Amino acid sequence: MELKKYKLGEILDVTRGASLSGEYYATEGDYIRLTCGNFDYQNNCFKENTSKDNLYYIGEFRSEFLMKKGDIITPLTEQAIGLLGSTAIIPESGKYIQSQDIAKIVCKEDLLDKDFAFYLISSTIVKQQLSAAAQQTKIRHTSPDKIKDCIVWIPKLTEQKCIGKLLRTLDSKIELNRAINQNLEAMAKQLYDYWFVQFDFPNAEGKPYKSSGGKMVWNEKLKREIPKGWDTAFVKDVATTYSGGTPKSTNAEYYDNGKIPWINSGELNSSIITKTINYITESGLNNSSAKLYPCNSILVAMYGATAGKVSLLTFEACSNQAVCGVMPIIDEMLFYVYFHISSLYNHFITLSTGSARDNISQDTIKNILLPLPTNKIAKEFNKQIRCLYQMMINNCQEIDILTKQRDELLPLLMNGQVRGEKRNVSICGRLEND
Question: Which of 79, 148, 197, 238 could join 9 in a cystine, given CB atoms 3.0 to 4.6 angstroms apart?
């Protein structure tokens, strides 16, 4: 594959966004201002920013800053290590305003394919140049000119299109799996709400219990009505709990070539955990307060940025001390306990005050009081939810495989070690035929 050398500025344009006055920030409106929080830089894709509540902009701005679906953006400010060089694609027209921390990438279509450009900007060769040229302040910055000064080697346009199509197809499948998982999770939460908040689980005739006149009785401990025949219990009555620990970081013996998965509290940002990048050795486990959580343990973040978040662990692992593991004694109670604790997120946040957010204790989790359904109801709920979560786990595993394939292919395709043309390597052809 013949590669030609360019400065990025020769094959694309980079424009900075608008300077938006803070006096027009609002909690609701027609337009959302883009920030660095819109980059999922670990997965190199767009995400909705949920870290702030004043993301709307109600002031005037020029129409050129209103983004269109398919626009490529990249950050000009590195608010997290590794952010510079990330790319994202705008998912909807007429909704997002390009702010001054965000650059828009516009390709010269006779020289550069748009899909190829998306991956080119986020490739290692460009990221390294941006990092080297970034202003060395507490928060590093780049600029449109510095992006345009980056040197790249690219193939001819037909080859770019094939490479871009291949990588885009892989990412589209990854995005589809994530969307399916979001829907599956929403279905599971809706079923929990229907059965255990509205108490409309199926009665003996298969009809909604409460809506069909099922008897409700006042429970003094919960200060609410619950179905007749139900009891109450604390989490400590139905589950074993213990928190993790961190091996001494300066002792290499505790980490080098470790094979025991070790979860830190920051990983509790999704409903299920199917992998980790952290491992410790058996010596590290034995020389810390950490214990192994079995597969299907419920993990609760007790402090830190993810305080109050709850995840289901799908493999055997241990954790740092900011995590509490909850292991239901009866298997059929797993998903009921999981969703009940998950539903208390706002309550946990109220408890965890202060900058350290360290007020969620193991005792707090142990002493959560919950309505105790009959064994039949808990078993049936567990059966239905387990099917949904197994599909989610399968999708996550497929995402991991596809992500690995994409990440291994990306540098090979970009530097010409693998050719994308069908007459050389039929990568695109196989994908299309499959």
Answer: 148
* Reported pTM: 0.82
Q: What would the two tokens of residue 366 be?
A: 């142990």
- Where helices occur in 22-156 by DSSP H, the ranges are 114-121, 124-133, 144-148
- The predicted structure's pLDDT at residue 350: 74
For 106, 351, 353, the CA distances from 361, given in Å and listed in that order, are 51, 10, 12
Report the domain count for the chain. 2
- What sign for the dihedral angle of Cα 403, 405, 406, 412? positive
The single-letter code of the amino acid at 234 is: F
Q: What is the mean pLDDT of residues 237-264?
A: 93
Measured N-to-C along each axis, helices 334-342 and 375-414 cross at an angle, to the nearest 10 degrees, of: 70
Based on the domain organization, do 32 and 136 belong to the same domain?
yes
* Residue 226 covered by a domain: no
- In terms of residue numbers, what domain contains 106? 4-154
pLDDT digits (tens, 9 = 90+) for 14-73: 999 999 999 999 999 999 999 999 998 878 889 998 778 899 999 999 999 999 999 999
Single-letter amino acid, residue 191: L
Dist CA 159 CA 396 (whole Å): 31
Closest to 139 in 3D by CA, of 82, 80, 87: 80
Secondary structure element (H or E) that encloses residue 154, with its range: strand 151-154
One-letter amino acid of 167: L
Type of residue numbered 188: A
Comparing CA positions, the residue from 326, 328, 342 lying closest to residue 372 is: 328
CA dist 71 to 41, 74, 91, 215, 285, Å? 17, 10, 8, 56, 48
